[in-house]
Write a structure and sequence with these properties.
By secondary structure, the chain is mainly beta. It has one domain. It has helices at residues 13-20, 103-114, and strands spanning 2-5, 9-10, 34-42, 50-58, 63-71, 82-88, 92-98, 122-126, 129-133, 137-141, 159-163, 166-171, 174-179, 193-199, 202-213. The chain is globular. 38% of the residues are buried. The mean pLDDT is 93.
Length: 214
């Protein structure tokens, strides 16, 4: 269950991502014109790390998938994956990382596919009361028989490569492919498991993350 606070963020999430996205090989758009078209979250079993995936457009029709993690302290040895910091009016400074380099995101998305496990339920804190909110993107894992959900890897056990508009991560005996441009061209049929989803302007399910043993 993800608890979301009504808070002011400086910079905003989209402003932070807009400063980082142009350096990514899969991004092609106007980074000053990012708009959110959906988002979904997973739970961190330890309750320490925020795990959110944002689906954004950048002045065009293409949708880009950007998994991020929010941490109260820096993740050791993960400077390569640091997107930046933001000030949260309730929680203070948050270090924001590209999820593909964060062990907590990788464990969470693998568990969602293999289990399968549900995405996090959203609770918004408003004047001291928790109000349930529907996510703007809904995802479901396919399930994978005969594959065990991974233990939490270390940063050193994560290998990341860019493959066209995909980001491929190898860790904990798994190959996890984040589809950065979920345009329907990838179905996951050649993978052991897939996380699929729909969002605000995309009612037909699209493959978002692919998983295979390696």
């Amino acid at each position: 269950m993800a608890i979301i606070y009504q808070a002011e963020l400086r910079p905003s999430k989209l402003e932070l991502l807009g400063g980082w996205a142009p350096s990514q090989p899969w991004f092609d758009g106007d980074a000053t014109a990012l708009t959110s078209v959906g988002a979904y979250r997973f739970d961190d079993p330890e309750g320490e790390v925020g795990v959110e995936t944002m689906l954004v457009q950048a002045g065009g029709t293409a949708t880009f998938q950007m998994p991020v993690t929010y941490r109260a302290t820096p993740l050791p040895d993960a400077d390569d994956w640091l997107i930046g910091t933001l000030q949260h009016s309730v929680l203070g400074t948050r270090w924001v990382y590209d999820g593909v380099g964060d062990p907590v995101y990788l464990q969470a998305v693998a568990a969602a596919i293999i289990g399968p496990r549900d995405q996090a339920e959203l609770l918004v804190e408003i004047d001291g009361e928790s109000v349930r909110r529907e996510p703007t993107a809904k995802v479901v894992g396919s399930g994978v028989d005969g594959v065990t959900e991974p233990a939490l890897p270390t940063v050193q056990e994560i290998a990341v490569q860019a493959h066209g508009t995909n980001t491929v991560v190898e860790t904990a005996g798994l190959r996890i492919t984040v589809v950065r441009v979920p345009d329907g061209s990838q179905t996951g049929d050649d993978s052991a498991g897939v996380l699929s989803g729909t969002w605000t302007d995309q009612p037909e399910s699209r493959a978002l993350v692919l998983l295979s043993p390696r």
